[in-house]
């Protein structure tokens, strides 16, 4: 499960990075996302997201049960500590995975809107040049209307560009957060190994105590 989550997160990081730079990979990713959002694609994506949400809710509920059991017993169980660390790591990765999915969806939407606005501006400029070279009167009025439309579209383009810059900075921050989570997960794994070793030592000690007590009872019965 953890390997699957790490693979999905790194794949999402690759998609976010492709959005930041104008490369053929970005065009391929945008085309792929456009196809995913058509037909039955949204239904499949919603099903996957709902599954992840259920797994996240299950992990959070398991964390709650372990904490409640620990408070009732008033003692720390090594096995519960290991399970607690595993569920916390899974919940963190699932939450980050869902957050990255939302970011990718919004970035894709803004990039599409920006491309449509740029195409509209280019078409308006071509039409204005055609009308400017030929007719006057009604053509001039139409040209004026086109220029006014261009003037209204420019603020929207600037707004979308600023939003893309904000999303790009957010993506960089998310990349740093993923690296921090990776280091944290390595710490959890080391703690997991240490707890397993302690658990095995405790079991061996209990077996030794049981063996010595049974040997003492045998001597006592003799």
From TrEMBL:
Highest taxon of the source?
Eukaryota
Segments traversing the membrane: 6-22, 43-64, 84-104
Membrane topology classification: Multi-pass membrane protein
Q: Might you name a Gene Ontology BP term for this protein? A: endoplasmic reticulum to Golgi vesicle-mediated transport
What is the annotated localization of this protein?
A: Endoplasmic reticulum membrane
- Coiled coil region boundaries: 107-191
Single GO cellular component annotation? endoplasmic reticulum membrane
Instruction: Give the keywords, sorted.
Output: Apoptosis, Coiled coil, Endoplasmic reticulum, ER-Golgi transport, Membrane, Protein transport, Transmembrane, Transmembrane helix, Transport
| Cited function | May play a role in anterograde transport of membrane proteins from the endoplasmic reticulum to the Golgi.
Q: Which PANTHER family match?
A: BCR-ASSOCIATED PROTEIN, BAP, ENDOPLASMIC RETICULUM TRANSMEMBRANE PROTEIN
Question: Could you say which protein family the record assigns here?
Answer: Belongs to the BCAP29/BCAP31 family.
Name under which the protein is recorded: Endoplasmic reticulum transmembrane protein
Q: Which organism is it from?
A: Abrus precatorius
Q: What is the lineage of its organism?
A: Eukaryota, Viridiplantae, Streptophyta, Embryophyta, Tracheophyta
> What gene does this protein come from?
LOC113856126
């Amino acid at each position: 499960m953890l390997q699957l989550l790490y693979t999905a997160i790194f794949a999402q990081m690759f998609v976010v990075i492709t959005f930041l730079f104008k490369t053929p990979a970005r065009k391929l990713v945008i085309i792929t996302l456009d196809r995913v959002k058509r037909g039955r694609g949204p239904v499949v994506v919603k099903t996957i997201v709902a599954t992840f949400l259920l797994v996240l809710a299950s992990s959070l509920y398991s964390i709650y049960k372990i904490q409640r059991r620990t408070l009732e017993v008033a003692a720390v169980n090594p096995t519960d500590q290991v399970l607690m660390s595993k569920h916390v790591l899974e919940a963190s990765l699932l939450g980050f995975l869902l957050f990255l999915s939302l970011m990718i969806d919004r970035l894709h939407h803004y990039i599409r809107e920006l491309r449509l606005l740029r195409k509209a501006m280019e078409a308006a400029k071509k039409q204005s040049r055609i009308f400017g070279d030929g007719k006057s009167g009604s053509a001039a009025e139409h040209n004026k209307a086109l220029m006014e439309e261009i003037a209204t579209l420019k603020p929207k383009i600037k707004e979308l560009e600023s939003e893309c810059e904000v999303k790009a900075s957010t993506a960089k921050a998310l990349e740093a957060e993923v690296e921090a989570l990776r280091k944290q997960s390595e710490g959890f794994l080391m703690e997991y190994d240490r707890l397993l070793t302690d658990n095995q030592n405790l079991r061996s000690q209990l077996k030794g105590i049981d063996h010595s007590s049974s040997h003492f009872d045998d001597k006592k019965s003799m």
